[in-house]
Prior knowledge:
The structure holds two protein chains of two kinds. Chain A has four helices and seven strands; from the N terminus they run αββαββααβββ. By secondary structure, chain A is of the alpha+beta class. The model of chain A is unreliable at 31-47 (pLDDT under 50). Chain B has one domain (42-259): Zn-dependent exopeptidases (Aminopeptidase, 3-Layer(aba) Sandwich). The longest helix of chain B is centred in the C-terminal third of the chain and has 21 residues, at 238-258. The chains are: A alpha+beta, B alpha/beta.
Amino acid sequence: MIPRRNIAIAGIVVFGGVAAWVLFIGLPRWYAARNAAVVTAAGTTPAAPAAAVRKITATLYFVSDDGMTLTPVQREVPFGATVVEQARAILEAQIAGAPPLVSAVPIETKLRDVFITERGDAFVDLSSDISAKHPGGSLDEIFTVYTLVNALTVNLPAITRVQILIDGKEVDTLAGHVDLRHPLSKNMEWVVHDTH
Amino acid sequence: MDVIAQTEAPPPGGPPAGVPPVPGIPETPPLLDLPTPGGLRAIVVDAGHGGDDTGAKGAQGALEKNVTLSVARKLKGALEARLGVRVLLTRDGDQAVASDQRAALANNNKADLFISLHANASLRPAVAGAEVFYLNLEGYGDQAQRASQGSADALPVLGGGNREIEITPWEMAQARHIDQSAVFAQAIEEALRERVPMSPRALQKAPFRVLVGANMPAVLVELGFLTNAQQEQQLTGDQHQNVLVQALVEGIVRYRAASGGTR
């Protein structure tokens, strides 16, 4: 009697273990692999499911070698499902920079918020680091402002003008020169035309 | 909204109605309002930055606010001596002055010209040369267009009749002077070019805050790049500052000639 009972218990334990593996490990693995295969077939994401981040190519801006213009540079940035999310992804990539390229936006700057009005004005709320860490000078201030303005208006047609806020408030200037009290339009006068 | 109201015959000795006061800046008593030959009566020289706002900083520690003040003082002396005009400084010490206060000083004193002095900075230390800017109105939208055309309202006055009052929004005072500012900027750029190294982009437009409220031809001059080691040394020295001052005086003389002596 006792051996048959032990065999039954062992059977239940083995069955339970197999069921638990199938339920918690086997099925999720199979489902993830199947899902990744479908997405990859669509050509939108890489095969590794854990690193599956959809990307778009965006134009970011950096200071040219001669220091007199902004140079447009193509970079992959995370895909955003909405215009606001895409704007945020572009701005975060722009602020993060791409060493050894020189960025006119102080790297300490933090993006606090982005919101967009129905008429296409984007309000970009930045931390005060963009002002406090700015080296000054009108040329670099122009570059800082139009790096951000152009990064949004060139990549996102839904955005026609950009106003920079600091710590949630409208400001006169970043460093004493460029008037930031109203939204600014795209300005390509400061951009060299060859794309890297 | 603040406005600059200009009547056809402004009351003598006082600023026009609606002009904001200039806290912290003593208003210079009006001198005899006799035009000098060529029409220039008063010029406002604006030493950029000041106080906690140091502006750009050179590698050897030179501060933009000190360079601009030094050149502004020299320019005041040279203009008064050579042209006999009244020259007002927006600051004559190390204090912060708001952008609107700088323009207000010029507007309240009916200055004929406004010249803002700055020293530049670049993330690339090799960048050097002087630059001259006037206001870029693109981006200010319809408001700038309306302001540039000017508008006069007929207002009834005591004793009967109407008086034409020209209303210009304080925000957009520079809009109606853009063409003359471009001529002024070009005259300054040409005079500088003959004496000091110029940037590859020496004459430009930009939406500069300090220029937009000036109700007269106005330019912003970047005297050189403090982030360039050689220029930092030059900009802090009397010899180069005097050369810059000579160029600025010459530019003003040329502008006066180019504008037909109407200024």
